């Protein structure tokens, strides 16, 4: 009888534990999560990873963090690249699928494939440089929900205004979240990497 009571007590305790777990509020990402995930419009781009043009298939089979930038960028881009390099080991702990970063150059006039390859290569093998001429580039960037400015014809030394947000694409090749930059007076607008790491763990888990 005593053994039966012990078994019943264990079963009840387990049932309460399961019920408590199911009722306990689950953590929600702070980022904007797309429900359902959104497929990017068809694209043809150049990549430092491939000698041939790439399309939507290149986003499949991996988690991809996309952001707009350019190699002559003085602040947002190198800061974001460095922050992502430091964050990648943490992100990779939450998934068996590779995590990559696409830096989409919004300065095709000055960012050749050779320059992009050298620039992204400095940060590691997980970093990929993406480029295209404006007729292909602008629709791709706009479809992601990002933006950039095109310099006036004939300008040589110029800055390119562009979004500082980061888009997360899932292994199915669909946009699943956007991490907006934190805008504070007197500071470079960059994404909060601690929030990105927390949210990625929830989304990829």
Automatic annotation (TrEMBL):
<dbReference type="InterPro" id="IPR003782">
    <property type="entry name" value="SCO1/SenC"/>
</dbReference>
<keyword id="KW-0186">Copper</keyword>
<feature type="binding site">
    <location>
        <position position="162"/>
    </location>
    <ligand>
        <name>Cu cation</name>
    </ligand>
</feature>
<dbReference type="Pfam" id="PF02630">
    <property type="entry name" value="SCO1-SenC"/>
</dbReference>
<keyword id="KW-1015">Disulfide bond</keyword>
<keyword id="KW-0479">Metal-binding</keyword>
<feature type="binding site">
    <location>
        <position position="77"/>
    </location>
    <ligand>
        <name>Cu cation</name>
    </ligand>
</feature>
<feature type="domain" description="Thioredoxin">
    <location>
        <begin position="34"/>
        <end position="205"/>
    </location>
</feature>
<comment type="similarity">
    <text>Belongs to the SCO1/2 family.</text>
</comment>
<dbReference type="GO" id="GO:0046872">
    <property type="term" value="F:metal ion binding"/>
</dbReference>
<feature type="disulfide bond" description="Redox-active">
    <location>
        <begin position="73"/>
        <end position="77"/>
    </location>
</feature>
<protein>
    <submittedName>
        <fullName>Protein SCO1/2</fullName>
    </submittedName>
</protein>
<dbReference type="InterPro" id="IPR036249">
    <property type="entry name" value="Thioredoxin-like_sf"/>
</dbReference>
<feature type="binding site">
    <location>
        <position position="73"/>
    </location>
    <ligand>
        <name>Cu cation</name>
    </ligand>
</feature>
<dbReference type="InterPro" id="IPR013766">
    <property type="entry name" value="Thioredoxin_domain"/>
</dbReference>
């Amino acid at each position: 009888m005593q053994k039966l009571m012990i078994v019943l007590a264990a079963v009840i305790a387990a049932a309460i534990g399961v019920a408590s777990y199911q009722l306990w509020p689950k953590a929600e990402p702070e980022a904007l999560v797309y429900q359902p995930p959104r497929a990017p419009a068809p694209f043809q781009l150049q990549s430092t990873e491939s000698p041939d043009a790439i399309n939507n298939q290149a986003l499949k089979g991996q988690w991809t963090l996309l952001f707009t930038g350019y190699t002559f960028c003085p602040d947002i881009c190198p800061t974001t690249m460095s922050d992502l390099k430091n964050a990648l080991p943490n992100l990779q702990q939450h998934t068996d699928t590779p995590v990559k970063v696409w830096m989409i150059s919004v300065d095709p006039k000055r960012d050749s494939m050779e320059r992009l390859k050298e620039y992204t290569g400095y940060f590691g093998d997980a970093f990929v440089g993406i480029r295209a001429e404006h007729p292909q580039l602008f629709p791709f960037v706009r479809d992601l929900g990002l933006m950039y400015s095109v310099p006036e014809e004939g300008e040589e030394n110029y800055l390119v205004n562009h979004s500082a947000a980061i888009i997360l694409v899932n292994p199915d090749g669909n946009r699943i979240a956007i991490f907006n930059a934190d805008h504070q007076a007197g500071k470079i607008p960059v994404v909060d990497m601690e929030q990105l790491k927390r949210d990625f763990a929830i989304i990829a888990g």
